[in-house]
Amino acid sequence: MSEPLLDVRDLRVSFRTRRGTVTAVDGLSFSVAPGEVLGVVGESGSGKSVSMLGLLGLIRDPNATVTGQVLFRGRDLVTMPDKELRAIRGRDIAMVFQDPMTALTPVYTVGWHIAEQIRAHEDITRQEARTRAIGLLEEVGIPDPARRVDSYPHEFSGGMRQRAVIAMAMACGPALLIADEPTTALDVTTQAQILDLMRRENAGGSAIVLITHDMGVVSRIADRVLVMYGGRAVEEGPRPAVFRTPRHPYTWGLLDSVPRVTGPRLRRLPAIPGMPVSPLDIPDGCAFAPRCRMRHAACTERPALAGDRQHRDACWLPTDDRAALRREETTP
């Protein structure tokens, strides 16, 4: 196997608050191979976005602390000087931020945003950058790109803004694209178009980290799945294995809450009981234990992410009994 493009080891992101230190990401480890699509899933507040912002050095809060190792092509991003990190961001690693409505500066044109991204990393003229921006807008499906390149963000619809943000991210041909909820608040037709864009980018050789809470989106595009809860990884494995034989009760809940298009119609979709855990109140043991119907005495200790190299989970339940326990859990 080739060396991973991105190798994250024991990443921790914490914040000093009036109530004490809050750990938003607690010992997260994962890797992304060249050309791979990793889907990172979990409820809001599970640490998906803050982990990616932390590994890119984009958390500027003076009360924040980021520790661990983030090896990109063998170089540690956590200890890298900011000047060198700025040269990597946008060129080698690009990020599509969560809200396209606020990701663009309203007083600059869409074309300016894309051209500025290119000129920050390449020694080309303004006209050459503008020409590239028009080509990128055409590539992501913006109609009449030669005219719309001079439009302001408020003149674009939500779907068009999302495409423009993706065009910015694709501008320098990054080796790794991090997409944070790229299809949230978009209609299903536009969602399909955005996912097609990402597939084309992946086919061109870029690895992708897709952050989402939508298991349906992950099932369509991801090669591997990382499930997060309470700032921790609770399950990781190839997409077919995670979807067909999920091992962690939290993953069971995420998958069971997805509407089915076949089989008997349910009167009500199953829901995970309780509320997502607050970073201020994460228990010492399993973070999911307060919401888990399968919890037992061992859950007072924190489980490690364990299993074979391909499919791992962090749960104390007996491995051989998981399928039967899931059937018991879902039986009304």
> What is the helix/strand order?
EEEHEEHEHHHHEHEHEEHHEEH
* Percent of sequence in beta strands: 15-25%
Q: In angstroms, what is the radius of gyration?
A: 21 Å
User: Helicity level, as a percent range?
Assistant: 25-40%
Describe this structure in words.
- The chain is α/β, with parallel strands linked by helices and 332 residues long.
- It contains 11 helices and 12 strands.
- The protein has helices at residues 48-55, 82-88, 110-121, 126-139, 145-148, 158-170, 188-203, 215-221, 239-244, 249-256, 322-330; strands spanning 6-17, 20-32, 37-41, 64-72, 75-76, 93-96, 176-180, 207-212, 224-229, 232-238, 306-307, 312-313.
- Helix 4 (126-139) crosses helix 6 and helix 6 runs parallel beside helix 7 (188-203).
- The longest helix is centred in the middle third of the chain and has 16 residues, at 188-203.
- The model has no long low-confidence stretch (mean pLDDT 89).
